[in-house]
Amino acid sequence: MPAAATEPAPPAKARSMQEIIDAAKPSDWRALDPARTLYMELDSGRVVVELAPQFAPEHVANITALAHEGFWNGMSINRSQDNFVVQWGDPEGENEANRKPLGSAKGKLPAEFSRASEGLAFHALPDRDGWAPQVGFVDGFPAARDPEQGQAWLAHCYGMVGAGRDLAADSSTGAELYVVIGQSPRQLDRNITTVGRVVEGIERLSVLARGTGPLGFYEQPSQRTPIRAIRLASDVPAAERSPIEVLRSDTPLFDELVEARRNRRDDFYKRPAGHIDLCNVPLPSRRTPGK
Amino acid sequence: MPAAATEPAPPAKARSMQEIIDAAKPSDWRALDPARTLYMELDSGRVVVELAPQFAPEHVANITALAHEGFWNGMSINRSQDNFVVQWGDPEGENEANRKPLGSAKGKLPAEFSRASEGLAFHALPDRDGWAPQVGFVDGFPAARDPEQGQAWLAHCYGMVGAGRDLAADSSTGAELYVVIGQSPRQLDRNITTVGRVVEGIERLSVLARGTGPLGFYEQPSQRTPIRAIRLASDVPAAERSPIEVLRSDTPLFDELVEARRNRRDDFYKRPAGHIDLCNVPLPSRRTPGK
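Predict the joint structure of the above. Result:
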C-alpha cells in the first residue's frame, strides 16, 4: 500500500488566540450595558466594572443607587492584601457615628451567595474543577453550578468584584467592594455576594502598594488611594464613556478560544496541558471599532 | 432515652491557621539553606528566593554561579505583565553583541521540566487537580506527580520562580528569571524549568507598574526597576542575612493547617469548601526566634 494512502491528513493548523480574536465577527462581541457598568475614576485613570444583576439583583440595585448618588466620590481604596484583594469604600464604614449615610440605598440586604440555575444560560466547560460539580460562563462571568441542587453562583477568579461583609451573611450592602488580585480564592464562593467583574483597568488596582496593617489595610490615611468618583456609565455623557465590548462567552468562537488555551499549539509550548482552569480562561475585551 | 445519651459529642473545636502556626514546635520549621537562598536587593528592600536543586540541579548550579559572580548586580526588572509574571535579567539579553557574559556559568543547559519522582519525599494532597494526576509538596515547594510515568515537577503557583527561555526547550540558562504574580499559570508546568520560590518580599515585585509593551515588557529603560544586587545568602555576612524559617510541609501539623484552610471553621465562613487547590495552600515563613 503506498504510504500516501495510509498517512492521516495533517490536522488543520489550529488558530492562535490572537487569530481567533481577529477573526471574530461583530456578533461575537457584546457591548457593555451602561446601566450596569461602573466607572471608578482614579488619578491613574479609569477602572471599568461590569455588574451582574442576574446573580445579585439586590446588591446591584444598591450599588447603582450608591453610584448614582455619588456615594463613593472622595472616598478611597483602603486595603491591598498581596495575592488576595484590593478593597474600597468608606474609610469610616466601621464607625457607626462617622460613616456616610447610604442615601436611597438600603441598609440591609439579603445574602445573594447563589441563585437558582434555572433561567441562566450556563455555558459549561468540560474541564473538571475541584471546587464545584461544574464550572463555565454566564453572560461572560466565570460561574459554577450544582446540577443536583439546581444552584449557580459566580466564581472568585482574578478581577471578580464582591461585596465585603461582616460576620453575618446578610451584612453586606454593596457600599464596601473588593476585587480579586491574586490566585483565585474560590473558598469564598457561596460565602459572600459577588457582584461583577473588572473588564478594564485592573492593573490600576493590582499594583497598589500592599497595606501593612492586618488583612492588608493601610495603617495611615495618607497611604490610601483617593477615589475621584464612581459613576454609572449611564450617568456619564456619551462622549466620555469607554466604548467597551466583551467577547461573548456562549459562541463557537469562544469555545475555539478556550481550546486554543487548553491545548497550546504554538512553538513555545512543548506539552499541551489538556486542561484549563475556569480562572485561567481569558475574557477578552476591546474598544468598539469606530468609537 | 434521655437526649443526653443520643446526642453525639460536639466535635473538638478545630484550631485556626494562626493557632496552628502558634502551636508549631521548633521541629515543625526548617531554616533556609544559605547556599541555596538568593537575596535580590532592590531600593524597596530584599526579596528572598529559595532554590530547588532537587528539581533543577543544572539551573540552580548556574544561578548560584551567576549570583556568586555578581552577574545581575546593576541589571533590572524588565517585565511586569498583569496577572502573569514579573521578570528580571540582562536587558540586553536578546542582543548577542551587547549582552553580559555568563562568566563561569554554562551557556547551554538541558531542559529540567520534570524529573524521576523516585527519591523525592512527595507529600500528596488528597484534593483533586485538573492539571496533574496528583499534587502535593516536596520540601515546601508545590509540586505535581504522575505515578504512572514516575515523573514529578514543580507547579506554577503564585510566587514560584522559573527560568525564561526562547522557543527551544533547552534555551534557558537561569540568567533570565521570572516570578508568578497572578492566577497560577499551570499550563507552563513541564514546559519550562522552574527553579524555586519567593519566600519573602513577593510584594516588592507584585506591585511593580505593569509594562505597556508586548508581554508586559517596559517600553522605556527608565521604567525598569534597578537591581542593586542578587547574592547568595552564603556570600552575605551572617549578620546581614535574613534568618528565615519555613514551615515544613511534611508534618501532621502542616496537614492540620491544610485542613483548616480546606474547611474553614471560623465565624466568617458559612460553607466550608471541602476542597483546596494546591496553589491556595499557604506556605508560612517566619523570622527565626531570637535572631
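The CA atoms of residues 89 and 176 of chain B lie 5 Å apart.
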